[in-house]
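Researcher: I'm preparing a figure for a lab meeting and need a structural model of a single chain. I don't have an experimental structure, so a prediction will have to do for now. The sequence is pasted below. Please return the structure as tokens so I can convert it later.
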Amino acid sequence: MPHIHLEYSDNLKDFHSQPILLGLNQALFATGHVQVATDIKSRAICQSDYLIGLGESNQAYVHVKVSLLSGRDIATKTEISNQLLLALQQSLPKQTHLTVQLCVEVLEMESAFYGKTVVVPTSAT
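Model: Understood. Here is the structure written out token by token.
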């Protein structure tokens, strides 16, 4: 069920979101706190309208939000946050002219109000 939202500034060089999303999914699954890998849904958005500080042009950012169903303890959420930050650090292409801020934010979704169903393909007759 976890959802990963990856946002990044458009001034990053050689940044390709698909391998980074895959690395984040793999890191989250490797924590053992997600039972089925296909339950992880991730997506990326490149931000072209942003401001860092007072407008310094040598700054960039990558921000990951991971939404989890409520009920996990602080230690679990901390481990997930740390592992995703590590995966992000390992997969980020080297930036020679930018200082890059990497952030991971863990959000809780109230289990009682989250609904999910899976629609499987039907066979054509």
